[in-house]
């Protein structure tokens, strides 16, 4: 139990640290279709501000966004534009200064930190640029961690998802024994092992070379299509963003829709 508690703390700390970078202002009001599908994420007039050395700094302002289940959505923008801040709010890793966010039907503002963590364990998967594998755990143990945090044990599922990313033969290897691409494939397997309702991906190919990044991108969208998961992808890579159904750009403090073929 102590080991599991420590693992849970380290894992959720990694999520919080990765998604807590506060940058520069962004704002908008945009709705995504298909409108006939249930709503996975609903954002209503959300703002985020922090206190800086010279006064209050507005990070996000009046963001209104609806993401329907089963859709794939990319948010693009330059470094420091507020992409990761927005993703952290959508996932409940941080709370907005104003407005409301509903994730998987739950109003995040009405949940305490523990309840939000439990919601993420049940409904959400994450993929990050920096893998965030625990070095003392094997590939299989890293993949199994979200199941443990949700109070489940399913070795068959762990083996299945490792095989899906082509790493069934590497299940007993530690992160230090894996290449960067292999580590990100383990991270993908970990993200999908619980069959999450919603997947958040923050620069999933950002630390990989082009060929490896392309392979990871292919795997990400194959797994996403096969599971019907809602995908929210934050990236500066416009080629990766073009693979999503909907693209939005944070620019000069506004979140603007990008028409297909116009993101280049």
TrEMBL record:
Domain of life of the source: Eukaryota
SMART domains to which the protein is assigned, alphabetical: AAA
Gene Ontology terms, MF aspect: ATP binding; ATP hydrolysis activity; transmembrane transporter activity
Protein source organism: Cylicocyclus nassatus (Nematode worm)
Gene3D superfamilies linked: P-loop containing nucleotide triphosphate hydrolases
Gene Ontology CC annotations of this record: membrane protein complex; plasma membrane
InterPro entries in UniProt: AAA+_ATPase, ABC_transporter-like_ATP-bd, ABC_transporter-like_CS, ABC_transpr_LolD-like, MacB-like_ATP-bd, P-loop_NTPase
Keywords from the named record: ATP-binding, Nucleotide-binding, Transport
Protein name per UniProt: ABC transporter domain-containing protein
Domain ABC transporter stretches: 41-264
């Amino acid at each position: 139990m102590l080991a599991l508690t420590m693992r849970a703390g380290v894992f959720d700390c990694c999520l919080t640290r990765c998604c807590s970078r506060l940058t520069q202002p962004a704002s908008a009001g945009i709705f995504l279709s298909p409108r006939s599908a249930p709503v996975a994420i609903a954002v209503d007039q959300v703002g985020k501000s922090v206190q800086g050395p010279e006064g209050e700094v507005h990070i996000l302002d009046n963001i209104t966004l609806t993401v329907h289940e089963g859709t794939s959505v990319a948010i693009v923008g330059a470094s420091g534009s507020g992409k990761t801040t927005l993703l952290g709010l959508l996932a409940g890793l941080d709370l907005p200064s104003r407005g409301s966010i509903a994730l998987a039907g739950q109003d995040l503002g009405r949940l305490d930190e523990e309840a939000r963590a439990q919601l993420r364990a049940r409904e959400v998967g994450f993929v990050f640029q920096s893998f965030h594998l625990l070095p003392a755990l094997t590939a299989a143990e890293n993949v199994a961690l979200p199941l443990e945090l949700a109070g489940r044990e399913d070795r068959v599922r762990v083996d299945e998802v490792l095989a899906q990313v082509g790493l069934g033969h590497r299940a007993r290897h530690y992160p230090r024994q894996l290449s960067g691409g292999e580590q990100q494939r383990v991270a993908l397997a970990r993200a999908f092992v619980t069959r999450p309702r919603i997947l958040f991906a923050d620069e999933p190919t950002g630390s990989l070379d082009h060929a490896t990044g392309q392979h990871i991108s292919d795997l990400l969208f194959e797994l996403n299509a096969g599971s019907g998961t809602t995908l929210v992808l934050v990236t500066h890579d416009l080629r990766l963003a073009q693979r999503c159904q909907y693209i939005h750009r944070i620019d000069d403090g506004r979140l603007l829709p990008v028409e297909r073929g116009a993101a280049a």
